[in-house]
Design brief:
mainly beta, 6-stranded mixed beta sheet, 5-stranded mixed beta sheet, about 40% strand, globular
C-alpha cells in the first residue's frame, strides 16, 4: 500500500450557487443596480439576486436600471419604472433613453431634448438626435452635423462633425471625411483624424483601426504596439480582449498576450474574472489564464455585483464570484458506503453519470472527488492511464481509446481519513447518430421610427419563419432548435448587433446558424446597409452595415444559412428615389460576394437582386419570398427524393427560385431570388417533411 502524504491540500468547490439552476427564462442578463433583466415568451421583466421576479415579464422591451430607473415599453407606450415596478414618470414621448448624470433624452415630433428625474423638460426638444451625457457633456445633432452641449443646453462645441462618440477620460472621438480622431472639451483636435475606426478611451488607451487591423494609442496619439488583430475591445481591469483567426484571448498594456488566443470566444474581465467559451462550453478564467470555474455551462454572462447568470442543463441559475465570496470546503466525513469518486466528464456528456454511452473511438475524460484526497491511479480496461496527480481534477494527458461495447474505468483514491478506495465506471461505446442544433435569429421590421418606411408583413414574415424552424425540433435531424426574434421596436441597431454577437457565444462547430432578415436595404456611399427600427436610410451610422453582419458571421465556426429580404417593398424604393438615394441593389450584390469570400460553409438565399425590389401582398399575408420559403419548408421543396422526407438547402433554394417569380406574376410584378454558396455547402439538411 502506498504511504500517505504528511498532509493533503484542502479541496473546495469552484463556486457556490446564489440561485440553483431552476430559473426557466429564455434569457437572463447581468445584474445592474441589484436587478437583472429576464425574458420569457418574448416579454421582459426583472429578478433580484434570489431569483425572485420583482417586476413581472409583461413588457415588450426594457433597458437595465440606471440611476434607480428603468426605461420600459408596453405596447406603444414608453415609461420609466422604479425597482418595485411602479411607473414614476408617465411617458408622453415618442421615444426616450436611459438616465445618465441625472438627465434622459426624449423625443417629441422627431426632435430630441432632455428631462430630469421629475419628468421636467430641462433642455428643449430642438435636436435631430442626441447621445447621453458623459463627463458633463452630451453630443447633439443639427442639420446632419454633430457637436456637444452642457447640462444647461449651451452649445459648447459647435456642430461641425460627421459623427461623434461620448467623452471618456477627457477626450471624445470625432469623424470627419470618413476618418476618426479625438478632441478635448474645448473642441481642440488633439489627435488628428487619420483612423478608419475607433471608440473612446478606457484606462488611458483607445483602440484604433487602420487597414482592417486594430491597435492601441495613448492620449498623445502615440502607437503603443503594432497593428495586428482583426478584433479587439477596450481595456478593462488592465487587459483587453483581442481576436485573430477566429481565436480570442487577452493582452496587457504592453501588447503582451497574457492569455493565449485559444478560445472560441471571450468577454471582458469583470471583478477579476472573464467568461470564455471553448468547444461549446463556457466557464471563467483569471488574469493569468487559469481556469477558476471549469467550462461546463451552455451560456454564461460576466460577473457583476458579485454574481453572474449561467445556463446549466438547459436552465438558468446565478453563481457567486469565488474571488469575492470564497466557497466553503465540503466535509471529509463521508460514509464508505457512498460513492467516493465522481466522473465529471466524458466528451460532451453530462456530469455524474456512472455509465455513459459515447460514439467516439477516443474521448477526453475528467475525474474528480468530493472531498480531500489524491487520485493514485486510473485504469481503462485494466491498463494504466497517465495523468497529472497534482491537479484538483484529473484529466488524462492523452485521449483515452475505447473499444466497441462495454469499457471499464477504475479510479483509485487515497485519503488521510479513510485510506485507499476504488470505484469503477463503465463506458459503453456504440455508434450514435450525432444530431445537430439550429440557432435561428429572425429579424423582421414592419414599423419604423420614421413611419414613411413602414411595411405591412415584415414582422409577420419573421415570426412565421421562426415558427417553421421551431417545428423542426422533434423531427429527427436537429437535436435542438434555439430561436431568437427581434421584431419592430426590438430590432434597433444596437439590439441587432448584440444578437449577432450572442450567436458567437452560443454556437458549436456542428451547429447550423440560420439568420433571417427582412427589412429595407439602402446603398449609402456604395456600401449596403440594412435598416433597423431606429435607422435613417440616408445616414449610415444609424443602420446596420453589411460589413458588421459579415464580421459576425465570419467568426462562426459552423455552417451558416442566410435568408435575406433586403428591399422588402416598393415603398422605400419610391422614398429613396424621391430623396435622391441610389438603388440599394448593387450594394447587396457586393455584400453577398464579400460574404462568399470570407465565410466557409455559407448558404445565402436572397429575395431579389438586379434592378428589382421585393414585394409583399395581402392575398398571401407575407412577402412573396417568405411565402415561397414557408411552402418549401413545409414539404413542397422535397422534390428529389420524396420518400426520404429530408429537405436540403439546394432543394429549398431551387423551389424558392422557381416559386417566387410565379407568385410575383400573379400580382403583376417581377421578382427573382438568387442563391449563393461557399465552402462545404452542397448537402445541408434544413427541414424534415411531415
Amino acid at each position: 500500500m502506498a504511504c500517505l502524504p504528511a498532509s493533503l491540500p484542502a479541496q473546495t468547490p469552484e463556486f457556490e450557487w446564489a440561485v440553483e439552476p431552476t430559473l426557466e427564462y429564455d434569457d437572463v442578463e447581468p445584474f445592474k443596480e441589484g436587478l437583472a433583466r429576464v425574458q420569457k415568451n418574448d416579454k421582459w421583466g426583472f429578478i433580484d439576486k434570489t431569483g425572485k421576479e420583482v417586476v413581472s415579464c409583461k413588457y415588450n422591451y426594457t433597458n437595465d436600471f440606471s440611476e434607480g430607473l428603468a426605461r420600459v415599453k408596453l405596447n406603444d407606450k414608453y415609461d420609466f419604472i422604479d425597482k418595485t415596478g411602479k411607473e414614476v414618470i408617465p411617458c408622453k414621448y415618442d421615444d426616450v433613453n436611459s438616465f445618465s448624470e441625472g438627465l434622459a433624452s426624449i423625443k417629441i415630433n422627431n426632435k430630441w431634448g432632455f428631462i430630469d428625474k421629475t419628468g421636467k423638460e430641462v433642455i428643449p426638444c430642438i435636436y435631430d438626435d442626441t447621445w447621453r451625457f458623459s463627463e458633463g457633456l452630451a453630443s447633439i445633432k443639427i442639420n446632419n452635423k454633430w457637436g456637444f452641449i452642457d447640462k444647461t443646453g449651451k452649445e459648447v462645441i459647435p456642430c461641425k462633425y460627421d459623427n461623434t462618440w461620448r467623452f471618456s477620460e477627457g477626450l471624445a472621438s470625432i469623424k470627419i471625411n470618413n476618418k476618426y480622431g479625438f478632441i478635448n472639451k474645448t473642441g481642440k483636435e488633439v489627435i488628428s483624424c487619420k483612423y478608419d475606426d475607433t471608440e473612446g478611451f478606457s484606462e488611458g488607451l483607445a483602440k484604433v483601426l487602420i487597414n482592417n487591423t486594430w491597435g492601441f494609442i495613448d492620449k498623445t496619439g502615440r502607437e503603443i504596439f503594432s497593428y495586428k488583430y482583426s478584433f479587439t475591445r477596450y481595456f478593462l481591469e488592465g487587459l483587453a480582449m483581442v481576436g485573430l483567426n477566429n481565436k480570442y484571448g487577452f493582452i496587457d498594456k504592453t501588447g503582451k498576450e497574457v492569455v493565449y488566443l485559444k478560445y472560441d470566444f471571450t468577454w471582458d474581465f469583470s471583478e477579476g474574472l472573464a467568461n470564455v467559451k471553448l468547444n461549446g462550453k463556457m466557464g471563467f478564467i483569471d488574469k493569468t489564464g487559469k481556469e477558476i470555474i471549469s467550462l461546463q455551462f451552455e451560456n454564461a454572462f460576466s460577473f457583476s455585483e458579485g454574481v453572474a447568470p449561467v445556463m446549466f442543463n438547459g436552465k438558468w441559475g446565478i453563481i457567486k464570484n469565488p474571488l469575492i465570496y470564497p466557497p466553503k470546503p465540503k466535509s471529509a466525513n463521508i460514509s464508505l458506503s457512498k460513492p467516493i469518486i465522481t466522473l465529471l466528464k466524458v466528451g460532451e456528456t453530462q456530469r455524474g453519470q456512472p455509465q455513459t454511452t459515447i460514439s467516439e473511438s477516443e474521448a477526453r475524460m475528467k475525474f474528480g472527488y468530493a472531498y480531500n484526497g489524491i487520485i493514485m491511479g486510473v485504469l481503462v480496461n485494466g491498463k494504466a492511464v497517465a495523468y497529472n496527480p497534482t491537479a484538483k481534477t484529473i484529466t488524462p494527458e492523452e485521449p483515452i481509446a475505447f473499444g466497441m461495447g462495454k469499457n471499464s474505468v477504475t479510479v483509485s483514491l487515497v485519503t488521510q481519513e479513510q485510506g485507499t478506495h476504488e470505484e469503477t465506471f463503465f463506458i459503453n461505446r456504440k455508434e450514435v447518430v450525432i444530431k445537430h442544433q439550429i440557432h435561428l435569429l429572425s429579424v423582421g421590421i414592419a414599423t419604423f421610427q420614421d413611419k414613411k418606411y413602414n411595411l405591412v408583413y415584415a414582422d409577420k414574415d419573421a415570426k412565421d419563419v421562426a415558427n417553421a424552424f421551431r417545428k423542426q425540433a422533434d423531427k429527427g435531424i436537429f437535436k435542438n432548435v434555439f430561436v431568437s426574434t427581434l421584431l419592430n421596436e426590438q430590432a434597433t441597431r444596437n439590439n441587432i448587433n448584440k444578437a449577432l454577437q450572442d450567436l458567437q457565444r452560443n454556437v458549436e462547430n456542428d451547429d447550423v446558424v440560420v439568420l433571417f432578415l427582412t427589412s429595407h436595404g439602402a446603398n449609402i456611399d456604395n456600401i449596403f446597409y440594412l435598416l433597423a427600427h431606429d435607422s435613417n436610410a440616408m445616414e449610415d451610422y444609424t443602420c446596420v452595415s453589411f460589413s458588421e453582419i459579415e464580421r459576425a458571421l465570419s467568426r462562426l465556426n459552423c455552417r451558416v444559412l442566410l435568408l435575406i429580404d433586403a428591399c422588402h417593398a416598393g415603398t422605400l424604393g419610391d422614398n429613396l428615389i424621391a430623396s435622391g438615394a441610389k438603388s440599394p441593389i448593387k450594394g447587396i450584390e457586393r455584400a453577398l460576394e464579400d460574404l462568399k469570400e470570407r465565410q466557409e460553409g455559407l448558404y445565402v438565399l436572397s429575395s431579389s437582386l438586379g434592378e428589382q425590389v421585393s414585394f409583399e401582398d395581402s392575398q398571401y399575408e407575407n412577402g412573396l419570398f417568405t411565402e415561397a420559403l414557408l411552402e418549401g419548408l413545409a414539404g413542397k421543396a422535397n422534390t428529389e427524393d420524396v420518400g426520404e422526407k429530408v429537405i436540403y438547402f439546394h432543394e429549398l433554394a431551387s423551389y424558392v427560385e422557381k416559386r417566387v417569380p410565379e407568385l410575383a406574376k400573379k400580382i403583376g410584378k417581377v421578382q427573382k431570388p438568387i442563391q449563393k454558396l461557399r465552402g462545404n455547402a452542397t448537402k445541408l439538411p434544413v427541414a424534415v417533411c411531415d
